[in-house]
Amino acid sequence: MFSYDFVSSGVDYDTLESLHRGEVTEWTSALRRSGLFTDAEMDALAAQWSERPGLLLDALLRDADEMTVRRCRLAWSAMDRLAPFQMPIAHSG
Fold first, then answer.
1. d(Cα 48, Cα 24) in Å, to the nearest integer?
2. 45, 28 in Cβ contact below 8 A?
């Protein structure tokens, strides 16, 4: 539904970075307003996308051309490498 809007003017790296951080509220709110899904379905999607934002990226890239998909995947991989370490660190002593 929103895949065309996501890629229509090329790759927006700021949007890609916010998605990578799990900032999916804008997307879930827009989808919720569309009325295509029940509240329960939207709650489940919002939870999934917040925990695994790559799933939302997959949906947004569904209708994108091959080069756009490559650019987005490459940028996403770079963000994965640069993302802060999120596992708890054991402390001794």
1. 10
2. yes
Q: What is the DSSP letter of 65?
A: -
Nearest to 42 by CA among 31, 50, 51: 31
Residuewise pLDDT in 10s, the chain (93 residues): 555 556 566 778 899 999 999 999 999 999 999 999 999 999 999 999 999 999 999 999 998 899 999 999 999 999 998 876 555 555 555
Rounded Cα distance between 74 and 10, Å, is 14
Token look-up 């709650």 returns: 43
Residue corresponding to tokens 């951080």:
21
Q: Which of 55, 54, 51, 73 is nearest to 64 (CA)?
A: 73
Whether the full predicted model's pTM is greater than 0.90, yes or no, is no
